[in-house]
Amino acid sequence: MDRKTLSVLLALAAVLVFFLGIIWIGGMLNPSLQLDETALLRFVFVGIGLVIVFVIYWLTKASGIWQVGTREVVYMAIGAALYAVFSYLFNGTVFVVPSVSQVALRPAIVIPMFFGYTFGPVVGFFSGAVGNMFGDALTGFGLSPQWSIGNGLVGLVAGLALLYPDKKKSLNNVLIAGGVLTLLATVIYFIGRSTPNMLFFDVPNNIFGDQPITLIAGLSVLIGFVLVLAVRFLFGANIDVGAAVTWSMLGNLIGIGFAAVSDIWINGYPPVAAIVGEFIPAAGPNLIFAAVLVPLLVGAYAAMRRQSGR
Prior knowledge:
The chain is mainly α. Helix content is 72%, strand content 3%. The chain folds into two domains: 3-163, Arp2/3 complex 21 kDa subunit ARPC3 (Orthogonal Bundle); 168-308. It has helices spanning 3-29, 39-59, 70-90, 110-119, 121-139, 145-159, 168-191, 215-218, 220-234, 239-266, 271-308; strands spanning 96-97, 103-104, 201-202, 207-208. The chain is globular, with a radius of gyration of 19 Å.
């Protein structure tokens, strides 16, 4: 086994070890962090996610983007720590999105996007997966390891932009793929727009879950995609900004989609409920944050490198 393959396998194994450690320690400190009878099924999807990552690596291993050395390990730790802290600050403690499960506005999602695009897919995956698990543990609402894998996939896909020396050539295909997924989500929203939201609180009747998400929320993925499209062409001269936002968009759709679809089996949600009640409330705001915040991070990092002469 060559060194690069071994390093990728060790990084994936480290993700799994961190997951098990957080569940074990968290469960002892806080009973709400203990997994229920769906624990095995959740880890089946964790395994599926890790296999997906390795297959992507195997198909593209000739590229240098998969190197994992001391530099990447440091960035993995920094990215995971930043994502954990900011996820804790925003995960349900500031803004809650009406949905069929615990979904919150999480601007911190741009951290694995940025780290993946800037430092490579392994760094992005680790930052998103481990950072999300730590953030959920700090919040104390409960652990969903398959959703943490989904967050990791967000960072991983953002890092795949580095496969292309000429990043501009990949953008049209990425936009087409994102547009197809966005159209599919929007169609499903109109099919299931009456899906009730468990976290919607009807004050006059003192009950939860009897209202569908609003039209704006239901169209949030479409709104986010339009913003990403605007950024792509408004920053046409700055290919790094356009590529970072475009690939982050695709990573968000794939990663959050993976997590939401897993709940069809784990939580027994109907497919339409999983898309309308989980995917759209999570992915839509994430796309908006990607369009607004990722350009700021990419611009700030570029300015820092210019100042340091790197």
